[in-house]
Amino acid sequence: MPPGYSVCMSRSEVRLSQVVTTTEHDAQLLELREVDGDPPRTLTMMIGRDVAKVISARVRQVETPRPLTHDLAQTILQTLGGAVEEVEIRDLQEGTYFATLRLRQGEHVHELDARPSDAVALAFGAAAPIYVHDRVWAAQ
């Protein structure tokens, strides 16, 4: 494990399965599927319309005429010599998911509390892995 990590190994890697968008509701659905599960587990969470559009555009590799907020965040990270290392969806409390966004800047790893949807958008843009902690699977 790289230096600076405080990661619990009771977790599994997931990949983006789908983003379900609708014009009828503000909340959209983000579905993540376990990579090595037998059978693979699925985590579905409600996310905001704006971040759903960002993730959908990144999945389809749609170029936007101007940078979106997550594109700007990615550019800022790169300009400052940092990169998204990984995302961990670490907890589920009273229907709210919590995530940690791990950024690497040289030898330093920074852990930031983040909304899972924002963290997934940044991870997807950086091709960084996404993990779900076992306590989240158990809480569903």
Briefly say what this structure is.
By secondary structure, this protein is of the alpha+beta class. The protein has 4 helices and 7 strands; from the N terminus they run E-E-E-H-H-E-E-E-H-E-H.
Fold and architecture overview:
This protein has 140 residues and is of the alpha+beta class. The protein has a single domain, classed as Bifunctional nuclease domain. Helix content is 28%, strand content 41%. It contains 4 helices and 7 strands, in the order βββααβββαβα. It has a 7-stranded mixed sheet. The chain starts with 10 loop residues before the first strand and ends with a helix.
Query: What fold name goes in the CATH topology slot?
Result: Bifunctional nuclease domain
Helix/strand order, N-terminal first: EEEHHEEEHEH
- Sequence of strands across the biggest β-sheet: 3-2-1-7-4-5-6
Indicate the overall shape. globular
User: What's the total count of β strands?
Assistant: 7
Kindly state the percentage of residues in helix. Answer: 25-40%
Any idea how many domains? 1
Low-confidence blocks of residues: none
The major pleated sheet works out as: 7 strands, mixed
CATH homologous superfamily - what is it? Bifunctional nuclease domain
- Going by CATH, the architecture would be Roll
Distance between the termini: 28 Å
Rg computed from alpha carbons, rounded to a whole number of angstroms: 15 Å
Task: Supply the number of helical segments.
Answer: 4
Percent range for β-strand residues? 35-45%
Q: Which structural category fits the helices and strands?
A: alpha+beta
Q: Regarding CATH, which class?
A: Alpha Beta
**Mean pLDDT score, rounded?**
91
